[in-house]
Amino acid sequence: MLNKHAIWFPGQGSQRVGMGKALSERHAIVKATMEEANEALGIRLNSLMYEGPMTELTRTNNAQPAILALCVAMYRVYSREWGYVPAMAAGHSLGEITALTCAGAIAFPDALRLVRRRGELMQRTAAAGIGAMAAVNGPSPDVVAKVCLETSAGFADGSRIVVVSNMNSEQQTVISGHKDAVHEASERLSAHGAAVIPLQVSAPFHSPLMAPAAAQFAEVLSCVSFGEMDFPVVSSLTGLPYGNTAEIAGILARGLTDPVNWPAVLAFQKSIGIADAVELGSGNVLKRLTPSDGLRVFSFDDKEDEAHLFAASRQTDAYSIELLNRCLAIATCVRNRNWNAAEYEQGVSSPYRGVQQLVDRLRDTGEQVAEAHVRQALAMLESVFRTKGTSAEEQKRRLARLRDEFGLRSLPGVSPADRSYAGSLL
Fold it and tell me: Nearest Cα to 185, choosing from 142, 232, 149, 215?
């Protein structure tokens, strides 16, 4: 199996006619996912994805649910058929909603309707024709931000705004704002030696000009019921994991006005020792944005990468290192109700570090995962549950899901009584 890794989901712009068609012919679960999407939206979304026309597919209110549906379908192949479990997930703009959906925070039908409405609100702003966007290649994001600030200076009433909307990498930044301001900033940046490419959009996404759409989207989000996450999701705005479900609505609403900071996501991933990622979506846009500094990215939509992922998924032991990683992910996601620092260090941080060190050692040495290793991970979970004040019902649910995900008849040290009532694990 692939070692401790992240999963990534692309945003709008990755759509193309034919997306998902061949995959639906090879995997029944993909076909079923597309039918589920059709039913949730009341349209033949899969027909639009497979046959186009591109002009209709590219419309924001169509592109967003199409991209999300394909990403979720790929995730289901990755997780249910191949048996992979990520250590974390992240998404670029729209992809963040996909990541939350795959983590279990948003039900798939709700997510489809949510992004369709998000697309409608964004499309309405585009129809006003007030804005523009441009990709800037070359200068660092700090240099681009300085030029945007200089261009907007003197217009305190907000009548001439241009801002950094996407920090995609150290070499690629996107700017957004009023047409005239974007044009002037583009000329200034070109004079600095930047390669500036106007984007074929008429809305200033990820800028203050999207505030009316963001306010309406916040109202839509207030009606959504968010569930617990099966693994951490890192926000592309903050570069940090969501702390709890109460944060989701606010951050997703800000996603229309605030800049995407993809390098911050990569920095967080690196800080927790994750060197691999799997991109689930059409194309490989996120893989192409990744610097060649040791981070290894596999794209599901690349034939060679897909073949590698499938082959690796077949090479499993009775207990895999992914089981230990899943225990770490559960420990991270469980809500904390204990703010005693000493108790938290002893009951959560210390045993978590022990299992993390175990995983690193197993990965470095290639040693097989043994029952004793799994028992250590489960003991860590017991300590985390007890210290964080996790309810018996949630413990039972998470342990049952853990057992089922890895096709185990039982978890070592967890008695039948413990599976019906989550008491002591060992």
Answer: 149
The yes-or-no verdict on residue 274 having pLDDT over 80 is yes
Which one-letter amino acid corresponds to residue 188? R
Q: Could you give the residue numbers annotated as active site?
A: 93, 206
What is the 3-class SS of the chain, one letter each residue? CCCCEEEEECCCCCCCCCCCHHHHHHCHHHHHHHHHHHHHHCCCHHHHHHHCCHHHHCCHHHHHHHHHHHHHHHHHHHHHHCCCCCCEEEECCHHHHHHHHHCCCCCHHHHHHHHHHHHHHHHHHHHHCCEEEEEEECCCHHHHHHHHHHHHCCCCCCCCCEEEEEECCCCEEEEEEEHHHHHHHHHHHHHCCCEEEECCCCCCCCCHHHHHHHHHHHHHHCCCCCCCCCCCEECCCCCCECCCHHHHHHHHHHCCCCCEEHHHHHHHHHHCCCCEEEECCCCCHHHHHCCCCCCEEEECCCHHHHHHHHHHHHCCCCCCHHHHHHHHHHHHHCCCCCCCHHHHHHHHHHHHHHHHHHHHHHHHHCCCCCHHHHHHHHHHHHHHHHHHCCCHHHHHHHHHHHHHHCCCCCCCCCCHHHHHCCCCCC
Q: How far apart are CA 182 and CA 176, in angstroms?
A: 6
Residue 188 to residue 237: CA distance in whole angstroms: 27
CA dist., res. 295 & res. 284, Å (int) = 15
Whether 141 and 260 have beta carbons less than 8 Å apart is answered as no
Tokens of 150: 């200089």
Model pTM above 0.85: no
Alpha-carbon span 7 to 88, nearest angstrom: 7
Which tens digit of pLDDT belongs to each residue from 212-254?
A: 999 999 999 999 999 999 999 999 999 999 999 999 999 999 9
Cβ-proximal residues to 344 (8 Å cutoff; 6+ apart), any chain: 336, 338, 387
CB 1 within 8 A of CB 363: no
Nearest to 14 by CA among 57, 61, 77, 74: 57
Q: Is the pLDDT of residue 209 over 50?
A: yes
